[in-house]
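Notes to self after the Tuesday call (sharing in case useful).
The group wants a holo model before anyone commits to mutagenesis around the pocket. I volunteered. Ligand is zinc ion. Logging inputs and output together so the record is complete.
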Amino acid sequence: MAPATVGKCCVCATETTQRCSKCSEGVDHHGTASATYYCNKDCQKADFKHHKSVCHDANARKQLYRGAALLQEAFYIFRRTVFVYPISDVRRKNGELHIEVPLFPTGPSPLYPFPEHLVPAESDQHAVLAYSACLDAVGYMHQLAKKVFQGILSPLSVCLQERDFHLKEEHRKVVRCRADGTEERNTFAHTVLLVTLRNDDVYVVDLAGAQFGQHRPVMLFPTYLTQYVSMVWSCREFGHEARVQQEVLDGKHNHVLPNVFDFKASMIEKAVIDALDGAVCQWQTEEGMSVAELLNGKQSAFESGKRSLLNICKDKMHGHIQSRECLIAREREIDNKGGIGVQAKEKMKIDAYPEHMHAFIQTRLWLTTEAHRLGWV
Ligand SMILES: [Zn+2]
Ligand SMILES: [Zn+2]
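Result:
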């Protein structure tokens, strides 16, 4: 038993400071601390059979809440490192953030610095980082998610799903607009992970929900359904999106990225995610501890471990971006010579898009070859 704040013995209701040491940092469905108190060993013994599953569930939820928070922080760092929108202005309108983004960026690199000065509040920054990024969150964070959930769920294939919803429009926080103020409200589905714990409780892990004002990385599914969902859409197995992303980059998937810049951005994003996954493996080796073990540790050890893990991830991702600056310069050279630059700009005219589809796919395939040649993928 571990010393703690005062609670009531769950058997005889006597006030006590003693609680079950195994689940002293366990949480309830909503992620709130939920220790089980016993006034003495006899009461603890009397409750043993019943408490066994209570204890297990409280710890599983602790790991789920910690793991989802870790995933979301890592995702925000990743998005900040490879930010793909050249936002020229942010306006607040009717409680929404209207971000002004040119329809087709024309810079030499598909990456832009995150516009901190335009969105000073942290919650707004998260909303912008999460904008149109739910598939990235599910796909790119797959390897880390696997490590996070390995310790809680078995088998992963049964307990995890990728699930699409339409979220209620009233929650929309970020709207993309053009310089003339025209709004572009996408009506794409919002993709999240659905996690089923051993006791059959279902949770939503939503790393990119901030664009809908939903900032929590994890939430009990029925609550999420009532508060945010307007329509339940499709469902796929865990790992589906990561596979599609890879197939698109390999030119093996029917899905065509809408423009050359998106393709280039995807290549860089994938390479940066590989750097992140490499950093996680390095951290595990150096610390002699798995991510799952980190999530199960004592609160203070978890906090410091999480910081060191996220720092190494950040360093590796930034290091990768820096090391590719020479490659980006090389790309600019190709652009200037009228290589992909002219072709790409021609094909990116929105009116001409359908008739250029075929040529566009050719460009994409050419880019794949070029990317391999430059060592990007
Ligand atoms: Zn008691
Ligand atoms: Zn316990």
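Two things stood out.
The pocket of zinc ion (ligand 1) is lined by residues 9, 11-12, 14, 38-39, 43 (CB under 6 Å).
The longest strand covers residues 229-237.
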